[in-house]
Amino acid sequence: MIEPAEEITIEDAFHRAVRYHNDGEFGYAVELYTQILEVSPNHTDAMHLLGVLGSQFGQHEEAVSLINQAIGILPDQPIYRINLGNVLQAQGKFEEAEQSYQQAIDINPVVAEAHYNLGCVLEQQDRINDAVQAYQSAINHRSDYIEALNNLGNIHKTLGDLGEATRV
Predict the structure, then answer these.
(1) Nearest to 168 by CA among 35, 45, 159, 154
(2) Rounded Cα–Cα distance for residues 74 and 68 (Å)
(3) pLDDT tens-digit profile of 34-62?
């Protein structure tokens, strides 16, 4: 006897896709995200994560397009803007990435990751004082943010301020 196909909700499919994505089963994740968007074309989380996944494989233009579509539907999601900034930064579009991180901060000022990523892109532009402020903001919002603490300490070390570097 043939069993009927399992019926799952869009949200169940989405959670399954995220698990595949997190477990490195990227082909399955892409397939499910795509199927979700065929059934629910405005599913912003699937759209966003399909873009993130595309970026992981160097498909940056497609990633920017998908994430921007998600932002167009749901503009107040800071994580969408953070990940858009990550893609733009990977493309070397530092000013655009900076703008995207700043928009995420404007939406929700306590998201430490947005401050940290802003610090990284500012540091890449040799805007060290601004980067220090951004890293410090990340740490103020999440005191155990190891990457921000590390980057801030390294800046102080590079500037020759070993005392401040060890205090960080």
Answers:
(1) 154
(2) 10
(3) 999 999 999 999 999 999 999 999 999 99
Query: Position of tokens 């951004």?
Result: 134
| 94-135 per-position pLDDT tens digit | 999 999 999 999 999 999 999 999 999 999 999 999 999 999
Cα separation values, 66 from 44, 45, 77, 130, 131, Å: 9, 10, 14, 30, 29
**What is the spatial distance between Cα 19 and Cα 23, in angstroms, rounded to a whole number?**
6
pTM recorded for the entire structure: 0.89
Written as six digits, the tokens of 44 are 């912003």
**Which tokens in the block code for residue 106?**
């404007």
The continuous run of DSSP H or E covering 64 comes out as helix 60-73
Task: Locate 164 and state its tokens.
Answer: 């401040």
Q: Are 151 and 134 in contact (CB under 8 A)?
A: no
State the angle between helix axes of 94-107 and 78-90 in degrees (0 to 180), rounded to the nearest 10: 170
Alpha carbons within 13 A on the beta-carbon side of 26: 9
